[in-house]
Amino acid sequence: MQTESNRIGFLSDLQDLLETRKSDRPEGSYTTRLFDKGTDKIAQKVGEEAVETVIAAKNNNEELRYEASDLLFHLMVLLTDRGMRIEDLVSELKSRHK
């Protein structure tokens, strides 16, 4: 059985990368462009990806996996923009599980 840190290890690493991209704003980075557009545009992108995920769920699992990955990525960008981390969501979900 995996430990909790192993279960979200890659997501934590990705979150670290997003935080670095937010602070360093490397030229040519997709995430830099997202951060430069601001919270409203990032949130709009999350909404678009959510709609695409819902549509994909009616099609096939391959498409669902692809779109859900986009949704999770853009949600993590939004969390980073707002000073939150994916681990904050894990904590919230754990607290609801009691």
Could you walk me through the main structural features you see in this protein, from its secondary elements to its overall organization?
The protein has helices spanning 4-24, 30-37, 39-57, 61-81, 86-96. The chain is mainly α. It has one domain: Helix Hairpins, CATH 1.10.287.1080. Helix 1 crosses helix 4 and helix 3 runs antiparallel to helix 4. The longest helix has 21 residues, at 4-24. The chain is globular.
Quick structural gist:
The chain has 98 residues and is mainly alpha-helical. It has one domain (4-96): MazG-like (Helix Hairpins), CATH 1.10.287.
Count of distinct structural domains: 1
| CATH classification, class level | Mainly Alpha
Helix/strand structural class: mainly alpha
Q: Which spans of ≥5 residues are poorly predicted at pLDDT below 50?
A: none
- Please give the share of residues in helix: over 70%
- Rg, rounded, reads 15 Å
Count the beta strands.
0
What would you say the CATH architecture is?
Orthogonal Bundle
Overall residue-averaged pLDDT value: 93
What's the CATH topology name? Helix Hairpins
Principal-axes shape call? globular
